[in-house]
Structure formats: C-alpha cells, structure tokens
Amino acid sequence: MTVTCLLDITPGNSFEGFCLVKEVKLEKTKKGDPYLNVTVAKKHKMVACKLWNNGFRGMSSEEILTFFSAGALMHITGDASEYNGQVQMTITNFRLAENGEVDFSEFIETAPESVDSMEAEIRSYIDEIKIPILHQITFEIFEDNKKLFMNHVAAVKMHHNFKGGLAYHTLSLLRIAKNICDQYGEVVNRSKMYAALTLHDMGKIVEMTRDYTAPEYTLIGQFLGHIQIVNQMIDRKLVAIRTERSVSAEETTVVYELMNIISSHHGPLSNGWGSTQEPITLEAHLCHMIDNIDAKINMISKAHSDMQEGEVQKIWGLGKIYKPNSL
Amino acid sequence: MTVTCLLDITPGNSFEGFCLVKEVKLEKTKKGDPYLNVTVAKKHKMVACKLWNNGFRGMSSEEILTFFSAGALMHITGDASEYNGQVQMTITNFRLAENGEVDFSEFIETAPESVDSMEAEIRSYIDEIKIPILHQITFEIFEDNKKLFMNHVAAVKMHHNFKGGLAYHTLSLLRIAKNICDQYGEVVNRSKMYAALTLHDMGKIVEMTRDYTAPEYTLIGQFLGHIQIVNQMIDRKLVAIRTERSVSAEETTVVYELMNIISSHHGPLSNGWGSTQEPITLEAHLCHMIDNIDAKINMISKAHSDMQEGEVQKIWGLGKIYKPNSL
Amino acid sequence: MTVTCLLDITPGNSFEGFCLVKEVKLEKTKKGDPYLNVTVAKKHKMVACKLWNNGFRGMSSEEILTFFSAGALMHITGDASEYNGQVQMTITNFRLAENGEVDFSEFIETAPESVDSMEAEIRSYIDEIKIPILHQITFEIFEDNKKLFMNHVAAVKMHHNFKGGLAYHTLSLLRIAKNICDQYGEVVNRSKMYAALTLHDMGKIVEMTRDYTAPEYTLIGQFLGHIQIVNQMIDRKLVAIRTERSVSAEETTVVYELMNIISSHHGPLSNGWGSTQEPITLEAHLCHMIDNIDAKINMISKAHSDMQEGEVQKIWGLGKIYKPNSL
Amino acid sequence: MTVTCLLDITPGNSFEGFCLVKEVKLEKTKKGDPYLNVTVAKKHKMVACKLWNNGFRGMSSEEILTFFSAGALMHITGDASEYNGQVQMTITNFRLAENGEVDFSEFIETAPESVDSMEAEIRSYIDEIKIPILHQITFEIFEDNKKLFMNHVAAVKMHHNFKGGLAYHTLSLLRIAKNICDQYGEVVNRSKMYAALTLHDMGKIVEMTRDYTAPEYTLIGQFLGHIQIVNQMIDRKLVAIRTERSVSAEETTVVYELMNIISSHHGPLSNGWGSTQEPITLEAHLCHMIDNIDAKINMISKAHSDMQEGEVQKIWGLGKIYKPNSL
Amino acid sequence: MTVTCLLDITPGNSFEGFCLVKEVKLEKTKKGDPYLNVTVAKKHKMVACKLWNNGFRGMSSEEILTFFSAGALMHITGDASEYNGQVQMTITNFRLAENGEVDFSEFIETAPESVDSMEAEIRSYIDEIKIPILHQITFEIFEDNKKLFMNHVAAVKMHHNFKGGLAYHTLSLLRIAKNICDQYGEVVNRSKMYAALTLHDMGKIVEMTRDYTAPEYTLIGQFLGHIQIVNQMIDRKLVAIRTERSVSAEETTVVYELMNIISSHHGPLSNGWGSTQEPITLEAHLCHMIDNIDAKINMISKAHSDMQEGEVQKIWGLGKIYKPNSL
Amino acid sequence: MTVTCLLDITPGNSFEGFCLVKEVKLEKTKKGDPYLNVTVAKKHKMVACKLWNNGFRGMSSEEILTFFSAGALMHITGDASEYNGQVQMTITNFRLAENGEVDFSEFIETAPESVDSMEAEIRSYIDEIKIPILHQITFEIFEDNKKLFMNHVAAVKMHHNFKGGLAYHTLSLLRIAKNICDQYGEVVNRSKMYAALTLHDMGKIVEMTRDYTAPEYTLIGQFLGHIQIVNQMIDRKLVAIRTERSVSAEETTVVYELMNIISSHHGPLSNGWGSTQEPITLEAHLCHMIDNIDAKINMISKAHSDMQEGEVQKIWGLGKIYKPNSL
Fold first, then answer.
1. Cβ–Cβ of D312/E32 closer than 8 Å?
2. Do F285 and D301 touch (CB under 8 A)?
3. Chain D partners of B83 at a C-beta cutoff of 8 Å?
C-alpha cells in the first residue's frame, strides 16, 4: 500500500509525499561507498531514512547535499521497513518541493493552542499583578520580547521542544498557579507568582537558537544560563525605571525578591540542576514545584505517544514508565 | 499587664488563665533542687514554663506530678519573660480546671474546616471515581476508617500535626488534583488520582498514635510504614471482593497500579524518603509532586506564624526562609 | 577439528551438534540483505552465531524464523572464529531436533544440587522455626508455592539466573545463617532468621516470569516488587489464621517483625536498592548482609568462569575483578 | 599576676585594661538572677566573660546594657580561669573608655598589609589587563567601589572575616595567578584571570554588612548572592559603555566569558557550593582552584593559631587538622 | 537499700563499694563553686557521678584531683537518682582502694573468652594457611605482636572497645570465614582468607593507645591508618624473607594480593570508609562483608544491653533499633 | 595534494610517509572478509586507518600482522577522507621502515623540556629540603629510580600520558609550590612540600608499564595503587636508615607526616578518588590542590588542541569546555 502522509507510515508501506528534512549525515559503507542518513518529519512524527549510492541518480555527494539539507521541504518516494523496532525508509526518488506547493506550517510541530489566544491569556495574568513595579517590569519585558517569546521552543530536547513550546509551558504554569492561589488564599502571593512564572524561562529566547527544527544552545546561553539572562533583563528594567522616577526601598526589595524566585526555580542548589541561589520564599519553592509538574506531565505523555498500551519502557530522566490500557 | 488568654502572652506580661499541658519534665538544679519544665498550649501557641521548687507549695515531686501531666487542663498564674528570643513563663500558682469549667476543644489545634464539610467533600471526590473496583475499594476503606481518619494527625511533627490534619491534607491534595485533571484533560486519569490521593496516607491511622497532644510512631508503624499498611488494606479488600464475585485480569491490574502509585508517592527510591517502589506511571509521579506542594506550603506558612515580617530564619527541612513584608 | 559438544567449542573449530536457541534477531546488512543473529547455548555456555542470507537455503525470513525461535532445540553445523575476543559461529546448516532425540535438561543451566535434596534441606530449616505462628506461616507459604519456587530463577540477569537458582540461593543463605546462629548463640534469633530467609525472595515467583531461557519482569512485579509481594502473602496467611483461631498481640507483633526483616533485606533506604522500610532489628541487618555475601560470591565466581587466570576484567556492579592463578 | 593587654591573658591571671565588646547576651541563672555573657576582643583574640549580678553595682539590667553593647570600647577588671579548655574571665569592675583614651584601630583585626599598598598593587594588576573592554569594566567597578572594597570583610565567619579581608584575599589570588600565568605562558589568558579575580568577590560589599565586629548577610545578599550581584555590576557597565560607543560582538562575547568565570568560581554546580553556571573555560576552572587554595591556607593557619604544637583538632569544614612541631 | 556492687545500682539505691574511675572533669557552678563530674565503672556498666563542693571535705580542687583520676580504683559512698532517664550518683564519701584490697581485673571489661583459648584458636587457623609465604608472614607477625594484640581494644568507641576486643573480633571473623569456606568449597581460597583476617586489624595496635579505659588515636595512627600500618608490617616481612632466600614472582604476587585484601577491607573507595584500594578479588569482597557482620552484631547487641524489651531507640551509626520481647 | 608528514594530513589529501603504529585490530566485514583497523601516529597526532582485504597484496591475515604491530615504524601510502568529523585514511600501500631510515624519537610524544634540564631542576628542589631525614629519603629514592622516573608516563590516558610526562608533571607542581611558599612565607613548610611533591607520583613507575605507546596498569599497581607503592619505598628507606644510625622520635614523626601528605594527595576520602588517608596538615591539603591545578590545565589545553576557536565540546571528566577566539 502507498501512503501519502508521513503520519500514516508503517513498516511494509510505500510512501510518496512531502516531508520536512530535520537532519542529514553523509556516511560511507565499509566498502567506501557514500550514502545518506536522513531524518524526515511531519509534525511530531520522525522517520529515519537511507539514501543508498545507487539512488544518487549519478550525482556526486556534494550535489546530493544541495537537495538534502536541514529545513528543506521535499517530495520523497520510498519503501518503509522495520529496523530495531523502528520504521526505516529507503528513499527511491526525491525532489525539492516547489515554492507554494505545500505549507511549511503543516510540517513543523507547534503548541496545541493558537499563538493569539495564548498571548491574550498570558496578558490577562499579567493584568492581575497588583504590585505596580512587578506589573511594570513583567509587562514591559513581555511586550519587548513577545514576538520571539510566543514562538520559541522551551528546550533543545526533553519537553516542549516545539514552536510555541515556551509560551505554552509558561501558560500551563500560570494556570496551575491560579488554582493553587485560589485554593490557599492569602498564604500565596498571587502577584509574585504571576510575575515570576511569566518571566521564569524568558531567558531561553537568548539561551537557545530560534530554530524549531534543531534548536541549540547559544554561546551566551552557555556562559550565563537562562536564569541569569532573565535576571539581567529585570535589572536593566529596574535601572531604566530609576531614570524616570524614584523607586522606594520596598519596591527594590520586592524586585530582588522576584529575582530570588527566578534564581531558585530549579530547586535547591544541592540538586545541581542549575539554580543560581537557594529558594528562600514560599513562592520560590512553589514556582519550582509547579514547573516540575508541567515538565514531568509533558515528558511522560510524550513518551506515551510512542508506546503501546500495557507496555513498560525506560525513558531518559524518568526511569521505567508504564502506559496503561484504556479502560 | 495581665492577660487571660495564652494567645495574647508576650514577655513582660503576667498571665492568669487556662491552658493545656503538652509536656512535663522533672529536672534538678545543679544544687540538686527539683523543678519542672512544662510546656503549655492553647491551639497552635506553645509556651515554655518553669515551676521552681519554691513554687511547689510544700508538695513533694510525686505530688506535684499529679497536677502536671500531659493532656491536663489547668488554671495557671505566672510571669512571662524572654529567654533566647522565646517567651518563657515562671509559674507562680496553679490548679486543675474543674469539670465543665472550660471546653477542651478550645485548646487543641484543629483543621481550619469542619469535620463534616471535609468528610462530605472527600466523599464527593470518591463519587467521581469511575473505575468500579477502584471506587469500591476506596469507598469501603474510607467508610471503614472514616471516624479515625477524619480526626487523625498527619504527622508527629513537621506539617499537619493537628486534629483533623490528615483529612485536611488529603482534601487539599484532592483539590489540587481536580484542577490539574481539569487542565490537562485525558492525559491524567482522574479516577486513579482520586483513589490514590484519598488512600495515600490512610496508613497513618495505624502508623501513629491517635494522640493530638503528642502523637508517636507505633511499633507496627515502625515495622511496616504507612505505605505498606495501606497497601495491606487494599489487598485485604481485593481478597474480600474476590470471595464475592470474579475479578477480571484488567481489574486486578488496575488495583496493583493503584498500589504502585501509593508505593511510590514519596518519589524515586534514590531519594531515600521511603517509597516502597519506583513510580512507573504519570499518576504516580503526579501524586508525589502534589503531596510535596501541600507539605511545603504548610511547613512554610507554619514557620511564618512564628516570624516577624522582613525576617529570615533557618527552618528544619527547608533551609533559610524569608517572611516578606505586607505590601 | 570438528567438535560435537558446544562446551568444547573454540575459535578455529567446526561444530556439528545440538544446542538450545536462547535468542533470535532478524537483522539486515547495509545492502539490505536479511540475516540472523542467534545465541545458542548448552548449560552456562553461550555462543553468538550468524546465519547469513546465503545460508537461508532459499527460504524467506518468515520461514527461517519457524526454525529459529527462543527455546528451540536444534542440530547445527557451523564454523567458529573469534570476534572481539569472543567465539562467534557462522551457521552453515541446521535442522530442528526431533522429539526424543536429545534431552532438554542437558541443555539448560540448573542449580548444582538436586531439587529433591534442596527441598528436603529447606524443609529441615523450616522445622527448626520454634515460634509457632512463624512456623505455620513459613511452612504454609512454602508448601503452597514449592513447585514453582524450587525451579524458579532468582534474577533476570546478574546472579542465580538459572533453573532452581531461587531455591539454591535461599538454601545458601540458610546455611550461612545456621553457622552464624551457632556461633553467636542467643544474640541472634534462629527462628526469625530461618523464617525470613526462607521467604525473603519468595515474591520473585510472581515478580519474574518462570522462563529459564530469558526471564523477564512481570507487570505486577514492576508495580509492587518482590518484597511487597511476599509481605502480601504473609498478610493473607495472617488473615486466614485469624479466621481459624485467635491470634495474640505478641504473635501479631512477631509477624510484623518478620515483615520488617523482609521489608529491609536490601539494606537501608538511603542506598536506593529497594528496601521498603528501614531495618530495625539485628535479624533485619543480618539478613541483608548474608544475602549480600551469597550474591557477591556468585557474581564473582560467574565472572571467573569466563576469565583466564591472572586476568583483570571490569565486571558490571563490581568494578575490576582479578582471577588469581592456581597455586 | 595582672596583665594589661588582652593578648597576654592566660588562666590564673588578673586583667586590667581596655578591650572591644564583640557580643553581649543577657541571661538568667536557674534561680532567676540576671547576668551577662560578654565576648571581648583585641585584634584576633577573643575572651568569653561573665558579669554576675553581684557585679552589677546596683544597676538594673537595662542600665547595665547601656555600658555593655557590641562595638563599645571599655576598661575592664577581671579574673581569668579556665572553662572547657578555654579562657574565661569574671568581670569585677568596668567603665567605658573615654574619647581619645585609646585608639579603636588597635582593637579590631585587620589585614596584615596596609590598605594603601594593597590598593596600589591591585591597581597594578588591573593595569596589566590588555583586553580593552575588560580593562575598562574592571577599572571602573574597582574605582567606583574601592573605598568600601578595600576595608570590607571577605566572610561572616570562616576565613578573612576581618577589616580589609576582602582586599587581602583578592590580592592573594592575583599573586598566585601571576605566577601560574608566568609558568604556563599563553595557555592561560592573563587579562581574563586578572579581571575575573579582581571582581570575583566584589559582590560581597553588597552581600554582607560593612561591620568588622559582627558582619551579617543582607537581605539582598540572601536574595541574589555575591556572584549575581557582581554580574549585575558588570552588566550595568556594559550597558553604560554601549551608550557611549559601539561594542563589537567579540567584545560582548569576552564580557560574557568574564561573567561565566565569575559565575562558576565556586566550582561545578554538582558540589552545591553556589556557582550560578558550570565553568566552561580554563580560566573558570583555574579561578575556582586558586580561590580554594587561599581559602584553605587561611582556614588552617587560623585554626593553628589556637592550637598547641603536636595537637590534632577537628576543624569545621576541614575535618581533623594537625599542627606540627617546629623543627 | 544499699548495694555494694555497681552492677546492681538503680535509682533510689544507696551505694557503698568499689569502682574504677574512667573519666574526671572539674567544673564550676554558675555561682563559681567547683564540683566534679566523674564517670565510674565496673565491667561494661558506667555510672555518671557528681561530687559537690560541700563533699570536698575541705580539700582544694588540686587536692581532690589527687584522689580522682582516670584509672584509679576507689571506694565510694553515694546516693543514686535518675537524670534524663539515666542513673546519676551523688558521691558523699570516698577513698582510694588500698593495694591488694580489690582485683583490678574485676573492674575492666574484657572479651568473653580467655586470652589463652583465643590465642590457641587463632594459631590453629594460622596453621591452616597452606600457601607457605602467607603462612610465614602471618605466623611471624602474629608471634611478634601477640602479647599486645591479644589484649588490645578493637576501637576507641563503637564495637569491641574492651580488653581483648581486637583478638575476639579477629577470632569471630575467622570462625565465620571457616564456615563459609566449608560451604562454598574451592570457590573461596581458605589460606588467603585466614591470612587476611588474622592480620586485617593488626595495625590497630599502633593506631590506638593500649589503654582499656579510654583508648585514643595515636599520631601515627592518624597519619597512616591501621590499613597502611599492617601493610607496612607485611612489606617489612617480605623484605626480610628476601634477605634469607629467593622469593618467586608467584609468591610476590600472592603477598601483594594479600595486601589488596587488607587494603580494601572497608569496602569500595566510594563509600569513604577508609579503604586504601578497591577490592579486586573474591576474598577482598568477602573479607569486608564478614567484618561488617561481626561489627553490626556487636553494635546492636551492645545497644540492646541498655534497652528495655519492646523499646525502639536511635543508635549512632545504625538508625532506629528495636529490642524484641523474649517469647 | 600529497603530504609526507602525518602532522599535515587533512581530509582530501593523499599521504606518503612514515608513521608509528599505535594499535592494530583484525576485523571482519559482515560478509566475512578480514580487514585491519590501524591507528598510526606522529607525536600527539593520531590517525585512524583502514586496510581493506583488497589491499592485503595476497597475504593471509597472519602474514599481514607481521607487518602491522604496535610500536612498528612503517612507510605508508594512503588516502585521507573524513568520517564522523575525524580524519580517516585508507591504506593503499605499506612497508616496514628500514633500520636507521627514520628516527624513532621523532614519532613519539615527549615532554616539552629536555630530560637533562628537568632532572637538574628537580634536583635543585631536592637540595632545598632542609629537614635532613626528608632530604635523605627524597634524594635516595630519586637517585635510585631517576632513570625510569625521568622517562615514564604520568597516566594511561587523561593527562601527561607521554614520555617524560611524569617528570614534567612533578616539576610543574614543584614550580607552583615554590611560588606559593614564597608568597605565604612560614605558613607553608617548604621542605615538606618539596619532598612530598617530588615523591607523590613516584609509585607510578611500578603502577604502570613503561610503554610510551600504550601504557597499562600492572597487576601490582592494581593491588596497591601508586600511593601505597611510594609509601612502601619511603618505609623501606626509613628501615634502611635505622640500620645505619639512630633515628629520633621527631624524625620518625616527620617521615610519617610525609607519608600522610602522600596518602591524602587525591583529596578527602569522601570523594572516592583514591586517597589512602584523610589529609590532616596544611601541606597535605595544598599538595592535593596544586596537583589538581596542573592536571586540569593539561586536560583542558590537550582538549583545546583538537578544537576550533569558538567551539564548545564535552570533554570526559570536565563537562563542556569552550575554546575562546584569539583576540
């Protein structure tokens, strides 16, 4: 059977259709013949492919790499088999998609909600920040960076590594926080929680490249980490506000308290996960725990999407995970 | 100034009123004279007291201990000073409260919601368990033990160590879980969450004595721990159900899955916090993280109640904690 | 030279004889030709084999897999060479063994003592349990499960992963314990030691499949672990006994003490090796240490069987191990 | 014998002379009589004292505390005995020192070199920074803060907790670094080392109070830590420079590289000592190791100053330490 | 009631009899009066005592210390009360025991078997060492040091800290090893085990002072540790043997293998318990595990001797320990 | 282009020249054809090569291995390509170098300073040891072993794994120590530092084989480790000196103090890096830290030699390392 959508491919099928090239490696067989290892994708579905030398259509390695490059949209023909329990496709024919022939956005993975609705909802949380200086700083940093922020990935791998993943992750934390604030009343300071959660991973727009295909750490990201980057953004805003009006000692304190929540949102220093200071407030502890919940739910549900019901698999960072049967 | 309610006492005051005796120790001065160290309380407020030998009113140590014993309600006169930053009272006069003179319930700390409303709300969560065997097991264990469960403490010290603390902690987790289930949809199994959370600390009614003044670990509690105790309750229910009707393999699996969630609700084995098995489902990971949130919020807000605004203190199990100024 | 017994095979030999198939994987060469990776065995000796496509005798991959399957007894012809310091055999001919042609039991690895003598000796230890309720529980659980228990493996890999390994490991611990009880006198309680050691790994008959070729963890095994499974068995016995006669508080205590020994036989919680409670008795600490001795001796002597005298090798879970020269 | 300089005091002596009050605590005997625990000092020498009630000269506790307060210079008469192996003095008479009667600077501990010579030498290292933007940033931050920096303590306890300790510690690191740069040649970048070491602990002027008697952590110090504080200073300089001239990408990179060295100067995150990012350059690793050398040498030589030759003592943070005999 | 043997003392008794002084501290009351804290003992029984100033019989502190000193045998009169759950005696009269009045050996704790029988039994194990060079080295080191070895303590505190404790501990390990060698046959090398166990703690005769009252670490003990000290003894023997005859390469190897067993008898380096090299043989692993068994049994049974049946106590190095009821 | 020096080889070049064979492995293709994996080197430059069966020139595998063996000097012709980002060469022709045709010393990696100058400088440090017994022991051990010591490697991999690496590493530490001694004055004992550093890794001449191509751990090295080996050397010297003259207690103490510095030069036991005793002197702590500095500088600069400017790579034992741009 021949399928035309990569999402439908299974071992034994032939495939004839469009896909996005995610990764390309030129290899050699033991006999010295060149061939390509190519990963193609549609949305979250990734398929490993081989293009053997006899499929090069007489082109040299250099020429073949002008077709196959990360980010290219291509039309591919191939046969799918199984290798080590994974689908593997041998490519038999290929060409580049022509301009306008297909829509790029149908091939990349994106957040499950629209950018516009997410942005509106995050802004509604910012509106709830009742401490003026926290509201101003959060609002301005969000406005300054929202175009990049709303589309950025939240990780190079692991969880939320897709277009809009950063905004979707941020919004998920705000929603959990809202319910906890409602439940625990004045014990938790809602304004500090919303400011801290909106900004907590904002530094990732500098820490990672804005590439939805294969995001990487930037050099500055490796020098400072996203926590110090966002604290820098906050400090620059504080300095700017001071050029416009006088800032009280109480206001300064609460801005530094915000920086502490962000500094410690990876948990206590002793876990070695990259906090830049110990958490010393209730909101700092809470921010870390909420972040953890959303991350774990996403890692596990992502793992589930590649598993059979009733199966147990070892998942990196989680240990063994079981996917229950539907009841 | 003389105060009559222990909640109002501060260094410099005299006190004349009722209190609950929490702890009594007979000591000797270096010169060999006997005296008493007594802790008295009203609700969450605890005050350390001294009764010097010259206040024994001519009684022997044995006689004096017939007045002062843990759990007694007494009328006390004394002078409050400060010692190491804490209030300390020297007792100058004392008598036992007469029957009916004061209401015991006004002196012990209790959950902030009524037993009846908490019980009704927990039962409403049990009603939402849609997997019949999980519903039956949870319902029956709750009904069998509710009288004890609704009034029990949740810990010997740390958090929720008060009358009704176990039920209040359980209910808090169910409320957090409800919102997370609402937010993440089918990704999280609501029935498993509600069953696991209702039962997760049920073993504490066997693990700790039912004493609101000074709960202690029982011997069986130290042999098995509350996790294995509740798994035993679940297993006994499963055995009992099997004597009444046949139980399918799918049902058995989901009961064991419930036991896994409970077995691992203290997190991965490597943290050494007493899980009896690794978490292998999303609900198992989530149950641990929600438990952690409620525990931390309570530990910190309990610490805050003894702190000044703007102060930083070292809190056992948490490191340094800051209490912010009201804004 | 041609050898007919797999135990005698070395690189350079030809082989013509019977063997047990342990594992089969269908692979493809880079050119796309199918071939088989097969592991064949006799007793503890395992040999990795290749069956290339040109040896398929015209059969398809599907047909070839009807011959080669885990657990099959086959007659094989092949040539042994060396690959990465290990024997590797290229299969040149093959057929299934006919019924009765060879004895299955000559090909699987088994405990070095007979099932009957091991069972008799374990029963003699049970006879020495002088605390009636411990004797009854141990005796009944042993009798209920002995058929499975006497033949089961003790691990999926590591040590004692052979037929009868569980019984042999259990018996070895009882023998060590006997001598220690003799040596230390009343300091160690013999009845508790014998009951705990007889039962300590009984849960493995549920935790692992009863497959001597390639045992695996069951789902229930992964939900609960063998410690909680055996504690469940003990609890069910306790419940059953109570339906027949009254059980004193002292008897109940000693049964829970037994469960504590078993709960903690992997050592303190902080090591993360899967104890379900801290050890709090001398017998609990001792049970863990004796278990460790037998496990380590078996892991090292198993490692020695594949090593040359004077050689040092890295062994998983042990670090470097030296095999001394015979003197 | 009566001594007049606190440095000479030993058990059995009387004392009559001046001293600095470091710490005062009002206590009560078991009988309820007030008395004072006072710590007095001259330079690094600290002596614990008691002022019993019968030495209050008829004054109330409140009056007595107007004499004894941290930071006061007093004239004291007393008798020294030994308690738990330490000198302890009972105060028999006291008065405040009159203005000009003694020189405050003779009583506080200070760095062993003069502020002027240390400042000149640090500035000579800054002159050696050959990367212009690093030179400018280091020079300006040093000039802005030198008055505070040159006199500040380097720690609240542990090592270098004296006036000028921060500058002296910084200078010691620069001297070690100079020799290592000379020895290893171009392998180590001298400009980056000098810039990083000059600034590495500059944040302590904000993190700790400028009190030479009993320095404490500030609230901002606890929110951010000295590493993030100095990175903030650097970033503010970078922003300011950009308002004056254009800064190249290479320059920006080297400034962020500087921030990485400082971020990681407590070593890898996994040690939990408070680095805010992993070290990723040779200079970052080196900066941490040099810091460690000076800290350890100072902790041990400080411990030695209270030990006899040939003695072994347990020292906090170091384990057992031996003080060798002079040879 | 008046008791005359310290072993019989309980709170409420008077005492009149002999005892051994273990520890003496001169203290002062808050009012400045001197008094003595004295620990007296008979065998394993230790009692804390006070000698108040009014019991000094007019003597000065200096004079009183000529009576009370560690190691002195005294005749004491006093009254026993209870303090913090422990017996405490107020001394009312005292004198030094006269020469020959009592037998010193009745007051110190000693091994439960006679020195002669232990020595004979250890020598019988040495006789079983069949590898000549191991036999010679073990025999000679034992003969050289046996007088000291047979009476030495095995620890400054923890387990076997009594006269003959080192020999008794060594013998206990040899007995366990014998049974394990009998059980596992040729898998374990008996000669290496007996040589290693006889010598494993021999270095303690240099590492700790030969004081049965209050043993301490020597300076050399702290420089090298008992493992390196015994390896030095072995090496010196090897050097000496080489001056008398030629030693083969195989013999040298087995001597170094012996040093490896001893070097690693505290377990793998990663536990930080002081092994000087990783264990790389079966005998090395086994030696560590057997050592652990005897140590733990002794620590727990020592803890039991101060506990009531049914009690649970926290024991240093072991966590909570339960002492079961006799059945 | 054809290059004749291995240091110049890059992908795309042909090579025709001499090289040193470091490692040879006979492999088989999936089809069963034999081929060679060969590593050839010049100085620090290593190149992975393939010799396919069709390049065997009709020789059998056995014959081909008489040409290719570790340590052989050969003349090779081949074509360089790139494989996984590394140069890989296919060998097309080969012959053994003839005697005298090339100079072996041009092909092995050696320390960057001459053996003679390093030896003279180390001896000048030994001359500075002012404690006579430390001078004598250090001098004699150095003289006894200098031929081997001056040429030995310092590690089997990691840092300083080249001819003369051990001497060069030792000298580097002495140079760092000299400057620190100059800087800190009498706080650090120069004689102890020089003695300890000269000897600290001397045991490596026994622990590792004297092979500059592929050094390995010896059996004795694995039994004892280089720390215990050098302590043995020191002890043998001490014994020898005692046969010649009497040694005072002070001298003995300082020799054992030297052994403590060496015993602990891998840092505290808790890090598990192989110290044989805790460091208890300032010199012991310092020796460890200086050793660490030289090791880290060498590991990082070695990593840099294979990296591009601006690149970040993960380096074993160090985490991510960045190589900065030249400025």
1. no
2. no
3. 28
Q: Report the 3 state secondary structure along chain D.
A: CEECCHHHCCCCCEEEEEEEEEEEEEEECCCCCEEEEEEEEECCEEEEEEECHHHCCCCCHHHHHHHCCCCCEEEEEEEEEEECCEEEEEEEEEEECCCCCCCHHHCCCECCCCHHHHHHHHHHHHHCCCCHHHHHHHHHHHHHHHHHHHHCCCCCCCCCCCECHHHHHHHHHHHHHHHHHHHHHHHCCHHHHHHHHHHCCCCHHHHECCCCCCCCECHHHHHHHHHHHHHHHHHHHHHHHHHHCCCCHHHHHHHHHHHHHHHCCCCCHHHCCCCCCCCCCHHHHHHHHHHHHHHHHHHHHHHHCCCCCCCEEEECCCEEEECCCCC
The residues, any chain, with a CB within 8 Å of residue C3's CB and separated by 6 or more, are C9, C13, C14, C15, C16, C17
**Tokens linked to E129:** 């060492």
C92 touches chain F (CB under 8 A): no
Query: Is the CB of residue A151 less than 8 Å away from at least one CB of chain D?
Result: no
Between CA A50 and CA A81 the distance in angstroms is 11
C touches B (3+ CB pairs < 8 Å)? yes
CB contact under 8 A, D272 and A274: no
Q: Are F323 and D283 in contact (CB under 8 A)?
A: no
Question: In this complex, is the C-beta atom of C239 within 8 Å of any C-beta atom belonging to chain F?
Answer: no
* Residue numbers in F near E270 (CB within 8 A): 272
Q: Is the pLDDT score of F180 beyond 90?
A: yes
Tens digits of per-residue pLDDT, F138-168?
A: 999 999 999 999 999 998 876 788 899 999 9
Angle CA A22–A26–A28, to nearest 5: 145
Strands, E assignment, E154-265? none
pLDDT, one tens digit per residue, over F63-105 is 898 999 888 999 999 999 877 667 889 999 999 999 889 988 8
Give E-chain residues touching D29 at CB under 8 angstroms. 30-31
Residue E158 reports pLDDT greater than 80: no
Chain A residues within an 8 Å CB radius of F312: 217, 219, 222
- If pLDDT is split at 50, 70 and 90, which confidence band does D30 have? low
Find the mean pLDDT for residues B218-240.
Answer: 97
DSSP single-letter state for residue E325: P
Q: What is the rounded distance in angstroms from the CA atom of residue C107 to the CA atom of residue C92?
A: 21
Burial of F26 (0-12, 13-18, 19+ CB in 10 A): middle
Q: Does F60 touch chain C (CB under 8 A)?
A: no
D278 contacts F293? CB cut-off 8 A: no
Q: Pick from E270, E285, E301, E307 the residue to mutate for testing the C interface (most C CBs within 10 Å).
A: E285
Pairing assessment for the beta strands D312-315 and E2-3 based on DSSP bridges: unpaired
Q: Do E32 and D322 touch (CB under 8 A)?
A: no
Q: Which domains does chain D have, with CATH numbers?
A: 2-107 (2.40.50.140), 115-302 (1.10.3210)
CA D178 to centroid of chain Cα atoms: 23
CA–chain centroid gap for D8, Å, is 24
Helix (H, G, I), strand (E, B) or coil at C216: coil
Q: In degrees rounded to 5, what are phi and psi of residue F324? A: -70, 160
Chain F nearest C-alpha distance from D184 (Å): 9
List pLDDT tens digits, range B168-185. 999 999 999 999 999 999
% pLDDT > 70, chain F: 98
Per-residue model confidence (pLDDT) at position F120: 98
The pTM score is: 0.90
Q: What is the pLDDT of residue B84?
A: 64
Chains in touch with A (≥3 Cβ pairs < 8 A): B, C, D, F
| Interface contact E83-B222, CB threshold 8 A | no
CB contact, 8 Å: A256 with chain D?
Answer: yes
